[in-house]
Amino acid sequence: MSTSPNQLETQLQQLQREAVEAIAATSTLEELESIRVSYLGKKGQLSQILRGMGKLSPQERPRIGALANEVKETLQVNLDNRHQALQQARIEEQLQAETLDVTMPGVSRPLGHIHPINSIIDRILEIFVGLGYTVATGPHIETDYYNFEALNTPVDHPARDMQDTFYLPEGSLLRTHTSSVQIRYMETHQPPVRIVAPGRCYRRDTVDATHSATFHQIEILAVDKGLRFTDLKGTIKEFIRQMFGEELPILFRASYFPFTEPSAEVDVQWKGKWLEVLGCGMVDPNVLKAVGYDPEIYTGFAAGLGVERFAMVLHEIDDIRRLYNSDLRFLKQF
Ligand code: DAH
Would you kindly state where each structural domain of the chain is located, as residue ranges? Predict the structure, then answer.
């Protein structure tokens, strides 16, 4: 049975109408693809209609052929437009689904923080570094020489009684103060010297609310030509001002340390009370001699302070042991 040109024409027009509708009705890219295959695919509806063209007369063939091409192009344009629209919709959907609300509060993780002892050390170091000092450290296990002898404290010196010492085998000991760092630093550096030396110290003290067998000190040492007691005073005053955040009444009380002459203890009036905050003095010429500095050319001043004492005063802590027993309920306050 032959197909007439008019029938073919009608079929083509109908196919176009149906296909355009079907394309418009698609809601996914997959659906659109299956529509494309069913109309324009190799075995699709258009090919099937065109198979009938073979039977057309040579006069009719060009007209129907042109019409078929038109239909094909129209469908292709419709398919392309729909494809673009569906793809755009998909992207928008995806964007919507994956939107990140950057204003949402984050999930906070538990984070450790600095122990009050270390934060006091950091504050003090920062003040002295601001004044031009360099941070220095030394070993905890020391020899008698660095801890006592070079600091003008010979074996029979009565001042050794002030510091009960943990002695280790073979003549070493646990340093009783950070003053040992003075000697170690000066031995390896030439003046001018300006150091601040923090660290742990050890003494055979019976533990109670104000004593601990291990504690922290910060040592300050300056050696230069022409340093005088007024330089020491000015330095301490500035340190106290920065540490307490205000100008406070300060008292330099005459005292004794083997490694300084003259020596003083410094009291500060804070919240109506006088607090003893540090020991200090002009470096004893014997100490300078011990490290090979000429005391006729150089003078120096030194100071030593207890970190725990500052922590306890500034944070109003009543028992030194709280700083060591790792009770989180206590530590979380800082
Ligand atoms: N080393 C002393 C102590 O542990 C503290 C001290 C006092 C250090 C006077 C100094 C100083 O540098 O000049 O008690």
Answer: 5-97, 116-331
